[in-house]
Amino acid sequence: xxxxxxxxxxxxxxxxxxxxxxxxxxxxxxxxxxxxxxxxxxxxxxxxxxxxxxxxxxxxxxxxxxxxxxxxxxxxxxxxxxxxxxxxxxxxxxxxxxxxxxxxxxxxxxxxxxxxxxxxxxxxxxxxxxxxxxxxxxxxxxxxxxxxxxxxxxxxxxxxxxxxxxxxxxxxxxxxxxxxxxxxxxxxxxxxxxxxxxxxxxxxxxxxxxxxxxxxxxxxxxxxxxxxxxxxxxxxxxxxxxxxxxxxxxxxxxxxxxxxxxxxxxxxxxxxxxxxxxxxxxxxxxxxxxxxxxxxxxxxxxxxxxxxxxxxxxxxxxxxxxxxxxxxxxxxxxxxxxxxxxxxxxxxxxxxxxxxxxxxxxxxxxxxxxxxxxxxxxxxxxxxxxxxxxxxxxxxxxx
Length: 399
Hints:
Blueprint: H1 8-14, E1 19-23, E2 26-31, H2 37-45, E3 47-51, E4 56-61, H3 65-72, E5 84-91, E6 97-107, E7 110-115, H4 120-125, E8 133-136, E9 141-147, H5 151-158, E10 159-160, E11 171-176, E12 179-184, E13 193-199, H6 203-214, E14 219-221, H7 224-233, H8 277-286, E15 290-297, H9 299-308, E16 324-328, E17 331-342, E18 347-355, E19 364-371, E20 374-383
Parallel strand pairs: 3-14
Antiparallel strand pairs: 1-2, 3-9, 4-7, 4-8, 5-6, 6-7, 9-13, 10-11, 11-12, 12-13, 15-18, 15-20, 16-17, 16-19, 17-18, 19-20
Helix pairs in contact: 2-7, 5-6
């Protein structure tokens, strides 16, 4: 049975829908109201408060902590300053992605590492021979994402911290409601936003202060359904949906290299040896077989299919995580893994994994669409990712 997070006593009374899902053994709110529109609009137009406590969190310390991190991830941690965050992935010896997450460098040899899946065993296996301590702090540290255009103003009002000049993917430290917090300029919405890290036992105090000071800035709690739409607009992948961990893959085609899921830029082949490096060097010479692309679906064709049977077009209110085939010239070219109607862009969009030869921006593909149990295809043009990339996401100052 799932259990509540550190914020459960606050989120439970607010969850009018009683619509929950299980996330890493915790109850996660899918949607607070019956529909998710207000929550999505908070992400894009005001401020949204999202409980991200179920992320797996690890503290890495010790004389060889930096050597250990560099052994596991494909990026070069030596290029990362204290109080800087990086997004990264880590691979198996065949160069296939196990997981992706963020690493915050809190000191010369101190890191906070987040992951979607349990990673302690893999980390410990790769720490052999090193003087490093890896601690699972998932149940000690609570986390909130504060996202949206007014999120900077909310923090400025609620936090005793230098927030206004906090750069993208940097960290500052301060207090909210008297509680010591780390504030990182990060998020999973592709918008201006922050992630807050705090002691589990004091988490409710932080929630209360943010909601109190955030009222003036139209703050709303937001659930997973709204977040799913936002992350697709931002071109951000989700494990077990847009790719499968190589640890869980049943066949080779379910395993992905970083380049095949849009993470090729997170691989630094110039650095010292790391797990999977030899395989990734070989792939770089030959080129990745597949590529992550964004698809913009031709809405006129969708409307025409519904019009033909006398129906108004049915826009799914939720993002779809069901993979559907993508074709070119009548032959399958790949699959769309995450599909949604974008309320901000007024377009139907999808993340897709397609063969390299079909991945150029501007290429016209065809995506399967089922209308009243009849399978059709509609054209979809390959576009650059992210679909949505506002200047405020990286702008300084933030208020």
